[in-house]
Amino acid sequence: MTKQEITDHNSIVLLVDSFYAKARKDDLIGPIFNEVIGDHWDEHLPTMYKFWGDILLNRNEYEGNPMFVHKRLNARIPLQPVHFERWKKLFVETVRELFEGDKAELAEQRAVSIATVMQLKISGYH
């Protein structure tokens, strides 16, 4: 497959769908996603398109508080550092398989940064 640059909504959809297809099958984090999201992927994925569209394309469409959502999730299913590491690994792997260029590098950097900060805040690190 030829790598492409992240340039528009279709790129975001490809990134998000590809990542979640991989994450849902993963032995470690797949069960978490499948339990929490269940049959509501048709609601979750458009939210993620908006989230990553804002981060990578400055779309200003996402409305939400991912930290609140993940803290609430952590109260239900304790998230461990290993979960965040796997998430980062799969996300970066997906970006590298499909994309190249400045926005691809930004996607990797932001994913690692967001996951790291979220992990620290959820664990109570100040």
From TrEMBL:
InterPro entries linked to this entry: Globin-like_sf, Globin/Proto
CDD domains: TrHb3_P (cd08916)
GO molecular function annotation: heme binding; oxygen binding
Name the record gives this protein: Hemoglobin
Lineage: Bacteria, Pseudomonadati, Bacteroidota, Chitinophagia, Chitinophagales
